[in-house]
Amino acid sequence: MTGMLRVPRSRGALSGVILVLLGLWGGLAALVGPYFHFAFTPDKAWSFTAGRVWLEILPACALLVGGLILLGSANRATAAIGAWIAALGGAWFVVGGTLSTMWAASDRLGVPVGGTTRQVVEQIALLSGLGAVAVFFAAVALGRLAVVGVKDARLAEREAAHAEEAPTVETPRPARDDRPATTGPIPPAREDRPGPIQATQPLPRRTGRPPVTPPEQAAPRPAEQTVPHTREQAAPRAPEPTDRRVAGGSAEDTGSFRRPGEGA
């Protein structure tokens, strides 16, 4: 259905151009015609009387707007609205002069200027004839817009096929959070655990603690240096023939035999 509403702009181009020209003629002739004595009284150029505004300028604006809509619209419904506006403006050109007899004398349109022949031509060219031609071309535009041609049907089918082949882009959904929501009150912060430091709060300065220096690694001792064994670490001495075992001692408790009086 949406594809059927599309029409080429050339469908109402001819009617639109003619309606725009008719609107310019109807509006400008009412204001510029007095220069050539081709107008309704008062025979004064650029005079905006009530009758001239309601019966000539207003319907001319309707023709101009409707023709522009027909020229620029590629939608069937919008172009049809423009054609209807132009048709109403043309109809007002035809019947407006007759209906103005029911208005006050100051709001009516004046009489045509000139002789009898000139007055007939002015009546046809500025009011009734202009309106009839405008209604005709507006009706032609409405008829062309109401018919769905073979070209329009093929264009709608191509657009529908193109819309079906176009890939659809899926919007990524946010990851679902399966963690249970916390509904209870938030527990207060512990006093022994300091809270986070704010961006505007200065960092605490450490005092009274000496700087910690890394321990120095001991240099490896050269291979040729040797440490003399102490007495406790000295290797056990081999027993000699002169050594005697002390009574009551173990086999390791041996020593040199000393005679009484030696070493005194």
Compose a concise summary of this entry.
The chain is 43% helix and 2% strand.
Itemize the secondary structure elements and their pairings.
Layout: H1 13-32, H2 50-72, H3 76-99, H4 116-146, H5 150-165, E1 243-245, E2 254-256
How would you characterize this protein structure?
This protein is an all-alpha fold and 264 residues long. The chain has a domain of 152 residues. The chain has five helices and two strands, in the order αααααββ. The chain has a two-stranded antiparallel ribbon with strand order 1-2. A hairpin with an 8-residue loop joins strand 1 and strand 2. Helix 1 packs antiparallel against helix 4, helix 2 runs antiparallel to helix 3 and helix 3 packs antiparallel against helix 4. The longest helix has 31 residues. The protein is elongated, with a radius of gyration of 59 Å.
Q: Major sheet, described briefly?
A: 2 strands, antiparallel
Q: Whole-Å distance between the termini?
A: 139 Å
Radius of gyration: 59 Å
Helix content: 40-55%
Q: How many strands appear in the DSSP assignment?
A: 2
- Output the structural class: mainly alpha
Percent strand equals: under 5%
The helix count comes to 5
Poorly predicted residue ranges = 251-257
Average residue-wise pLDDT: 75
Along the chain, the helix and strand elements come as: HHHHHEE
Provide the spatial order of strands within the biggest beta sheet. Answer: 1-2
Anisotropy-based shape? elongated
